[in-house]
Amino acid sequence: MMIYPGQNHNEERLLRRLQQRYENQFAAGTRVYFTVAEFLQLAASYEEEGMPKKGIEATAQGVAQHPFAIDLHLKLAQLYLDNHFFDKAFDTLAKARGLAPGDIEVELLYAEALIAAGDVSEAMVLLDFLKDGAGSSSLSDILFIEALAHERNDAYEAMFYTLQQSVVADPENQEALERFGSCTLQCRKYTEGIAFYEQLLEQNAYLPVAWYNLAQAKVYMAEYEEAVEAYEYAIAVDDQYWQACRDCADLCMELQHFQKALKYYLQLLEAQGSEAEAELYVQIGQCYLQLDRPSAAITFYIRSAQMDPLNDEIYFAIGECYAAQGQWMNAVQYFEKTLGIDDTREEYLGALAEAYYNLGNTDMAVEYIREAIALNDIEARYWILYATFLIDAGQAEEALDVLEEAMDTAPGAEVLYCRVACLFATGKRNAAMYWLGEALTEDFEMHRSLFELMPELETDASVINLIADHTWQSPNY
């Protein structure tokens, strides 16, 4: 049995015992007595676990034991309806209508069954009849079912406005609010939806689903910071609103608000406990890595790898963490493990090449960077790494040849500046100054990369003067 976030473990244990007691009766060949509430619990638990057949069987036994319990009849009819057993649903509803004539819940479920079976006109007649004299809460429920009728007819505009009326009638109708939120996105009525949610929340700020819907609409309008704020209000009102928590964390991650993303991912982890999936541990690890806490990141990545041992991206992330700490031997170990799972990713080969380079093993570094280039020869970074390895190995002429080849497949300022460094390294100063001028013209802002390749050029008067002459070309001048 699944343990859902926020579910009380004692309640879960009691529910497990109830299921065992129910299922043991079949082995014993007897029928055990259960209360109406227990049958409803059994039906709900089997439904949540994706076992509708068992849910139907348990509820049908409940109806047999409690033939006058309207709640069990409604639940059985709903299960039949959800699983497209329309004839059985109508038979059960006929009995329910006989037991409770005019009961609003029974009539609404009957209308829903008519809609599902395609008899929308008859359903609309019944719903119009039910509206007469209905209170605000009942009217909200009636309008919600009416919206389903519009959906069945693909009349999404009418569905949108009917759901809006349903929420106005009863702002605490969570089902209507949730469906209105998805309908807002489906109809792309983001601006109209935002205005409605804001007005609704001015009247009652304690509507977590309204805050969540507002956040969703804000995301689609690219108002990301306001979306985060709305998600946080939803969580503040309902601290177990896990979907809001998840979506807020994911959005914060995209916005690079890593500390805030970490906060909500950790809340999810605490709530889910042993049911947490590997992906959540990965996301927490990513936050820690971005917050320059690679040791903490490794802890969560390793836990994720234990749960998903064939995920190459997790091992790569662990390797990146060790690389960030300068633990190159460990980095090599995990990058090689990554390639053992997938050897077709050039970024894995490039990372392994850099790790070997930092261990002083230029031969292995060159071997792997060549493999990376063979997979992706339009990525300038790999050519520059290749040239850098050769320059540091005292093979500047060979590095120049590499960069000549790079200019054909990955042209751009990055390669130009690296070529300038090679020319300086080989004593070809005049050519270096010429190509530096070309590079400065193409991308002035990138000239700092030249000093990263050859720090001594930062004090070279001719180089500094040439850069100064090009300063006026910079858009930031």
UniProtKB/TrEMBL annotation:
InterPro entries named among the record's database cross-references: TPR-like_helical_dom_sf, TPR_rpt, Ycf3
Zinc listed as a keyword: no
Gene3D superfamilies referenced in this protein's UniProt entry, alphabetically: Tetratricopeptide repeat domain
TPR repeat residue numbers: 208-241, 278-311, 312-345, 346-379
Keyword Disulfide bond found: no
Keyword annotations from UniProtKB, A to Z: Repeat, TPR repeat
The species this protein was found in: Phaeodactylibacter luteus
Protein known as: Tetratricopeptide repeat protein
A Pfam family recorded for this sequence: TPR_8
